[in-house]
Amino acid sequence: MSEHLPEAASDKVKSVHLVNIPTKVTGVDIIESDAKALGRLHQKPKRQQHQPKPEIKLHVKTDKLKRHTSIKRPAVPEASRGILGIAFYAVGRFISAISNVIK
Amino acid sequence: MDHEIKSLDIGTMHVISASVSADCRIRFKKIRNAFLKIHVEQSMSQFLKQEELQYAEIGEDLYALGDSAFKMAGITGKDVSRPMQDGVLNPKEPRAEIILKLLIEALVGKAQGEGAICYYSIPAEPFQREKRVIYHSGIIHTILEDLGYKAVAVNEGLAVIYSGLADRHFTGIGISCGCGLINVCLSRKAQVLDAFAIDRAGDWIDDNASKAIGEPAHKVMLVKEGGLNLLSPQDRTENALAIYYKDLIQYVVECIKDRWHDSGRVSHFDGPVNIVCAGGTALPAGFIAILRSELKKARFPLRVDQVSLAKDPLYAIARGCLIGAVNDGSSHFIRQCAAHRRTACRPKKPSPAVKKPRSRPKARPRRIKRS
Ligand SMILES: Nc1ncnc2c1ncn2[C@@H]1O[C@H](COP(=O)(O)OP(=O)(O)OP(=O)(O)O)[C@@H](O)[C@H]1O
Ligand SMILES: [Mg+2]
Question: ipTM beyond 0.90?
Answer without folding.
Answer: no
